[in-house]
Amino acid sequence: MIGGLFIYNHKGEVLISRVYRDDIGRNAVDAFRVNVIHARQQVRSPVTNIARTSFFHVKRSNIWLAAVTKQNVNAAMVFEFLYKMCDVMTAYFGKISEENIKNNFVLIYELLDEILDFGYPQNSETGALKTFITQQGIKSQTKEEQSQITSQVTGQIGWRREGIKYRRNELFLDVLESVNLLMSPQGQVLSAHVSGRVVMKSYLSGMPECKFGMNDKIVIDKQGKGGTADDAGKSGKQSIAIDDCTFHQCVRLSKFDSERSISFIPPDGEYELMRYRTTKDIILPFRVIPLVREVGRTKLEVKVVIKSNFKPSLLAQKIEVRIPTPLNTSGVQVICMKGKAKYKASENAIVWKIKRMAGMKESQISAEIELLPTNDKKKWARPPISMNFEVPFAPSGLKVRYLKVFEPKLNYSDHDVIKWVRYIGRSGIYETRC
Amino acid sequence: MTDSKYFTTNKKGEIFELKAELNNEKKEKRKEAVKKVIAAMTVGKDVSSLFPDVVNCMQTDNLELKKLVYLYLMNYAKSQPDMAIMAVNSFVKDCEDPNPLIRALAVRTMGCIRVDKITEYLCEPLRKCLKDEDPYVRKTAAVCVAKLHDINAQMVEDQGFLDSLRDLIADSNPMVVANAVAALSEISESHPNSNLLDLNPQNINKLLTALNECTEWGQIFILDCLSNYNPKDEREAQSICERVTPRLSHANSAVVLSAVKVLMKFLELLPKDSDYYGTLLKKLSPPLVTLLSGEPEVQYVALRNINLIVQKRPEILKQEIKVFFVKYNDPIYVKLEKLDIMIRLASQANIAQVLAELKEYATEVDVDFVRKAVRAIGRCAIKVEQSAERCVSTLLDLIQTKVNYVVQEAIVVIRDIFRKYPNKYESIIATLCENLDSLDEPDARAAMIWIVGEYAERIDNADELLESFLEGFHDESTQVQLTLLTAIVKLFLKKPSETQELVQQVLSLATQDSDNPDLRDRGYIYWRLLSTDPVTAKEVVLSEKPLISEETDLIEPTLLDELICHIGSLASVYHKPPNAFVEGSHGIHQHSADQFAIMKQYFSVLQVWLPATKAKGLEIAGTFSRRQGHMYMDMTFINKALQHMTDFAIQFNKNSFGVIPTTPLPIHTPLMPNQSIDISLPLSTIGPVMKMDPLNNLQVAVKNIIDVFYFSCLIPLNIFFVEDGKMERQVFLVTWKDIPNENELQYQIKECHLNADTVSGKLQNNNIFTIAKRNVEGQDMLYQSLKLTNGIWILAELRIQPGNPNYTGKKKTNATAFSYKLMVHIF
Fold first, then answer.
1. What pTM was estimated for this model as a whole?
2. Which of A328, A334, A419 lies closest to A371 in space, CA to CA?
3. Where do the Beta-adaptin appendage C-terminal subdomain domain residues begin and end (chain B) (predicted)?
């Protein structure tokens, strides 16, 4: 299990050090600093073994978090724990920065004491932790309150406390997708997938039982069998094939496995209900058509056309096309039909920005790149042209069909809950090779 | 509130000031002071001299201050054991506190104070806390047992805490169960054979129930523990798998990987022809792919594991090669791992795509990555013959780039391609020779020299080329020197007239001027060969070379099996067994790995009984097993001929146990070329008996439309041990005495590191029953009986000395000479 946990600033100074196991000595702190933080080369692995001691690290801005062990621990668990630790800290005091960590070091020690016992991760849901780890000093809890805390921390529903009340029961569902593409210069899709998340903000009273439905092909097909052939044909068209999905721990996985229904008691506030991945029938919002021509040894001509490929009534936003330029670029001239384009020497790229663009349109940029003559034999690697954008629909085609809320003990029904659904499709790694 | 100010005090006399503040009357001041002490401790200053002052602040009702003091205590108690005693009272009192949070805090902290004197006082409070009404306290106490065991294992056993911990597995609270499992798993690692966890179907059921209800971390503990369980039959394995599969959709990647581990292990036990087996295999692929959309560190762990899974069961991910294509922004460690997996998954179906990708990668910036990409192209050529031509032309393109390290790497892989496809691509040698001067790495130089030597007859100026290397002979690495020596000898054998001088020169350089014994020896051998018998020399030096294998860097199968048992853990990341990087580890995992190996023997390892070459294309591999009281002959028929096969039948010769098949061979459809079929033939022992030598020999005849084929195989004796082989105690005693000594056999079992209970458990699985156990002079004596299908009883006495891995056994039987031999086989 985890033998110790250290937090360092960018210089390698220790901000937090908590040792859980006897086999981890103080020298481990220095070993990591010397061998990893101060190492000359780039980090070649997130797991480092120094003198039979293994160090797992993650970096958040310029803060290093390192977990140390001498045992054969579950490596995936250690990383998941470090991520969780970051989430918990962010939930308590915002951004993870040197200043925030120094300002909250007592709190961090208190948290580390609670969520890692002898190196075993314990309940680390912020909802539960915030009920009893506060920096306000201990309130005089009644016996009931105390046992409520402990039963929540250890209980089946560790992510939600009882007795939550809202005047207005409201929930927000955000379907956030990032669409990833790798396209060859000839326009062939080398790989494309959507990784999506359903983020829910729930402001519901009591212990509501929720059921979430979407146009999952497997579910729709199953229902289709029972209904008329016509129905099945109609709904079948709109359903999507989900390659795989994972759920927040509140979702009853065995029920999903057997019936493919998504039922749960949600945590209070914002959390990620599910993640999913699709690869079939993805709507690619933009198509990039590159044309790069080398004119002699000192000049490049680049022409890039982008085409938007969705309903004309919808608007894409924050469009940015990044065209890489060789390292020996001396000057660039750009002409674009729409938006603004600039050559950024420090980033070795032409950045073309368009605020808004409707569907089924196209736009073009052309650039002349002057090169300095070099005797560097190595060819320019031609990194791919990448793109960023945001569109108001889900490129996977996912649709929320329903989110039903039942709370038998309190008298509000599914109809009284105000529900909001929003779809946002963003570019993930959206690249076209040139 | 800003606490950062505590980090900044750096004046002289700091300790003195702190001391004063710690003894301040005001509570707030004291708290401030403790915070400063903790801050100083964090940055590594020695503040142990403040021990008494800090401990004085412990008696407080302020929980925050208390926690800070505890933190200090955990750090320094060991260096001040005498003073640490001062804190005991306060701990004991806190363990009685009405607030469960405080009770838990006290028991948690006490376990972290590694001072013997304190641990004594810990026992009573711990015992109470293990039975506390509040689950929060119980789950903390469960972990505390593991802490205490780490400090004083003997005491934990003496105080009966292990039993209390085992009781907690049946606790009503899932988190208590999970922590108890975690603690027990860890403790049992230091007692490899103690069977502490005592996994039986009832307990397993409890764990599976808790699995659905506990936190994500708890699920990991439980899954990791489950993976050490050995189900008694296929049905149990399947039912556990069914209950574990839903975990594959968990958001926590560690839960997913641990579930994958359980499933990968239990897959071995499922019959390969069942529908469920196929479904389960299909279910494994999507979650593994999903792991690659996580954060880079988890991706890395996942990729290292996928690398193992792909070697063990390539079918799971063979359709998914695209997800392993490298993204421009991937961290380098992810890129390198993806590349590895891409090569493993490369096949004729996807080779075009893979090659296009690899070509792309070969122009990247990172040197290691580029080299690996070039190497990968070469490996594709070797693996997929159809692509070889395209790979070679891609490599030539890369050589044209003149990027030094790309050229060198390309030459190394081209050598391998030459070896795989001799006399096919030699036309490119000229291009390679152009780059001779730019090669500065030993690998590349050696590769080039090898090529020149091997194809000396086609290269006009081979002698000049090799001569140019001779100039700096002594500065070359050994590898290059050895290759150069061989290459020149080859050249001489091919063109003796022109190169006499050159070969003289290299032989003298190698034998007279070198200190390297390998080089000298090789030089002398060549010299003698050439001078005595040039014809033999030719046969030796220019002999045909063995083909190189298609797969490279494969992990050795036994290690692979062991690593599969460690999916998700550090071992799977390092691709090394735990004892290679953990001090003093021999734990339960290794033990389970060897059980795994034993199980495999009985479940899945098929021996080839009838090779295809001897049976006109029909290959039969098989094994025997005993399931639910019946014997089976499990066989795989493979048609390696070009025509289909029908009309199968099987017959046994008379044998020692009267084994005959009870049904005809269940192959009803024709077996197409390259098709295989798995069958299970039920057996009985009611056939005619004839003594065979060896006793368990079975001669089998198999007929098909082509011909009749004969083979013989050995039946493992344990399949003849019947389930009702447990003899009554009294009968045993009488029989043991009755059997004359000449029917007794003594033997030793060597290097078996198991204790008496595990041994008898293991034996019982094979229907060898322990009748009694007693302890004589520190040795465990086991008395056992077993019964064969033909009604012969065999009695055994097994003497186990703790610490001595060699067992002494005595066997007696009441049957005739026939049984003698039998006994020899059993162990």
1. 0.73
2. A328
3. 721-819
